[in-house]
## 1
Amino acid sequence: MNKSNFIIELKNISKSYGNKVVLDNVSLNVKKGEFVTILGPSGCGKTTLLRSIAGFVTPDEGQIYLNGELINEMPPYERQLNTVFQRYALFPHLNVFENIAFGLKLQKLPKDEIEKRVRKVLKLVSMSDYEWRDVESLSGGQQQRVAIARAIVNRPQVLLLDEPLAALDLKMRHDMQMELKEMHKNLGITFIYVTHDQEEALTLSDTIVVMNDGVIQQVGNPIDIYNEPINPFVADFIGESNILNAKMIEDRKVEFMNHEFECVDENMGVNNPVDVVVRPEDIYILPDKDNPAAMMTAKVMTSIFKGVHYEMTVITENGYELMIQDYNCFEVGSEVGLIIRPNDIHVMKKERLQNTFKGTMADSTHVKMLGGVFECKEQSWAEGGEDVLVNVAFKAVDMMDDTEDGVVDADVQVILYMGNHYHLRIRTLESREAVFVDTNDIWDEGDIVGIKILPKDIKINRVANEA
Amino acid sequence: MKRNLLRLAGKRGAWGFPYLIFMLIFVLLPLILVGVYAFTDHAGHFTLANFGQFFNQSKDINTFLYSLGIAIITTLICILIGYPIAYILSNANLCKSEVMVMLFILPMWVNVLVRTLATVALFGFVGIPLGEGALIFGMVYNFLPFMILPIYNVLKKMDKSYIEAAQDMGASPAKVFTKVIFPLSMPGVISGVMMVFMPTISTFAISELLTMNKIKLFGTTIQENINNGLWNYGSVLALLMLVIILITTWVTDSNDTSESAGGLI
């Protein structure tokens, strides 16, 4: 048999609870000895993915391989994996030693072997003096160490960690991050780590898997993920960023904020709409706005001292808001010049230019889509029942505070600030379809809104005619 | 003075006063009376003769030991039947299990005497002889819900991640139960034991009805003595029973190391 290089292979994993799709055709390969982090906002499916590797969740579709062996049907207790649980899940009726020895005792190892191995891992997590302590008397950080010791004492092939540091305070978290990294190096075990903390992911991982909405967005090493995000979501989620609508004029030339910039990207088409990402530390500020080197002028609106640098928001001459990080402080209200270097402009292909929904004509002036009935301009050919594709511009989708005013309800899922407006992804509550919206209004994630679209903005294309 | 009274009434502790008075009259005072009667004779003089009387009467000692035995057997049977039921109920899906739990609690809404009389009538109808077997059946039937409920509550509230953690470390379903679920459910079992053992040891109505007065339990002996005006001797018997119950409480309490004791609530 051709043994694969990967210790864990996930092939087309899908999982839904009711009509909520948690994992949507996820495929992922993990190399032996790698430190892989699955990163994403809460509810993106990352924990479900980890739990299906551990065996607590059975995927609806797809295959999971461990060392080339299909383990879909294997119960969790037979998998050579161990998990560090988010809430530690230490057994309250056992002391520290007994908790760690739990798995070894089940394997019926000789007593002195058990003692030797428990002592060794306790030393590894610097908890040697706590052997006989009651687990409930330990602090959060100590419990976490015991939980890690309990998982690695069984010498698993893969260690699964489910947001293990989420409950710790910042200082403790940083210390534990370093220790985990050290442990990974020394043990040579494959780590699969789930977190929503992008800094943690960047610090710890060999490979980061960015997930959102049950779909893997991007897989890569931390530097690539940070410098070459594949779409605005990844750019926004990893680190601070300025994301802007832009137009690729030609190779190595891109226009945004009404200004033409030189960049390093090629083969993105001519006069093609794109997204650009500029990291806040990559915008240079010139104190003198009349400096001939300045590409544009801007006014400093806020300035906050962040320890190493100042974080400022500026508004450019053309009304775009940018975030800038600089070691120097610029006074609020002062006019400055800005420089963005070609290397620091990251151009991304747009995934879509407008919304496209599948619908059905209800009658000649109404179309059924998104789980509701919308009024549209009269379609003389329509009698009702014809399948159509409906295009709606991002700007044409109206969001209503009062859901009574909308045709269908949706919840706000992702908000991106695009310099002078917000780009939102909302999802209809009933049909669970994604709708993209450009708006100037401020919304919060999780807001429930009503959606309304004016008849003139609903562009209907007949499917039957084209076929 | 008036201000002080007002301030006192404002304190939450003050609200407990009516209850405190109730306790003094109906709990503490009878206990003191039992103690006083046990250590005095007819004339009210201090004596230990009442205790001597008990230890010289093998009939009463035998009744005492027999009652203890019946209580222990009843409690054990309640655990053996109640635990699996509680376990199944706690695992069933919510809507179904709630109905089931209701069905098990429902008999508790009917008075003990009515239930027991019904049992007597039923046994008579079917032709099962009354006696020791019927007595134990009646006790188990009456006290089983008190065993099921606390165990069910503890199992229902148990963090499922403990079970996952055990599985994760290689425990088969059987091992998960013996190494994790059962030890963690001990507070519920202990509550159940307290709630079954204590009333069974002092019961008398069930034994009278289900054995046609053929088998006498300790509770009956106490009741007879008091009814016959033998207050001093009756108090000694009551005091002995109290000591047994205190010992049970003390033993179960010291076993219960976990702070999250699973009560009936």
## 2
Amino acid sequence: MNKKIALVTLIEASILLSSDDKLALIDAVPGFNEKQVMALGKMLAEERAVLLANEETIMQTIKTKLDAISAEAQSDTVYIGTGKSS
Amino acid sequence: MKNPHTDAMDESPEIPQKEQVVLPPELEKAMSGARDRVTAEAKRPETDILERTAGLGFAASMKEAITPHTKKMGEVAFKDLKAMIMATISLVPLMSTGASVARAAEKATRLEAKQLQLATKAEKVAQKASKSGVLVTKEIAAADTAVWKAGVKAREAFEALVSKFSLAELNQYKHLLAKGADPRVAARIAMLPVERAALFEKEISTGVEMAKAFEHASKGIDTTTKWAPFGEKLMFGKKMEIPAGKIKYGARVGAEHVAEGWLHKTLHTLDPYPDVPGLVSMVGFLDLIPGVVGMELVPAGWQMIANKIQMGKEQLGMASDVSKVILNKLGVKFNKLKEPHVARAAEVFMPQAAQAAI
């Protein structure tokens, strides 16, 4: 697979990158030199490997934290600034 | 070149035309397809919610998962730890190193400005709360606005001073704090919330230079013992007991926002979702501080997240559990990583054996 095409594929599939980041990077790919392509490609390949290796842990951690946020959002407590009003 | 007004030959040099780069058809097709799919995906409310709300938990989770692997990432051809971390979490700032990606850098600057704007709004909310007595004690309702303003100026000077720490140093400090080691190094961070208040009082009242005050305050300071409970109170918005008559309220409020401002400025580069307010970004850092456990937030950050959860519900047009939507979306993204063509692309840069070793 052509390296720049592989790079575009990894950019699109990345989880860490936001949509804005992805679009900016995709547009920038044609201007990358070999060194930049390899560095960024390795980076994204590493990201993919790390994420897949820790998928279960990450998803469980996020679920726990999202549940806490949602529960807080549904409470009647009102937060003002840096203190809780009772 | 002919001058259109006089018809005479213009001696001014012709403006050189930009070199037209012809992309290989396959690359152009790949880019076009990816661009269209990412754009379409971004418009979906679930994606917006995921990127704006779930970034909080995701940032902390990614840090937890990625920390053991940072050594392996040394294989990547980056010059220093800062570039490596920034590349790991947010690649847009990294791209400012190349002339061909100036647009990406400009976008990063706008995102940074937006985040600072959100952090500033949170600070204003805290300022108003201080007048209502919610921040710390009833006496804080009489906070001196002039002292507050001086504290803000001091923060800017402090940030300029602290900016001399490279991200590599700062990350080294966090690592040491987590191990409870090297008091001298940890003191530089540990002193921020406690001593900064006294520093500001001194600076505001006597005009001592920030750099000198910083050095003075950093000597012989007991670190984690002081930092953990104070940090917990500071960051979690609990009531703080001010030693009577020793610290000016305004200076202390200013001190809080110096600590928050500095951490925000440093940590936003570690946040994969720059739209998440800087106050919220501190969670990942706090997880490394001894004695500070759990994912509680400064309530100003809670307010923003709660608002976004509500916005998410409104965007989805139903009262369903936004968390489930986010988790489903994340599940889809993980599945995409496993698709054969993505696996082949990854193998171009990292052999399967190396991937399996992680």
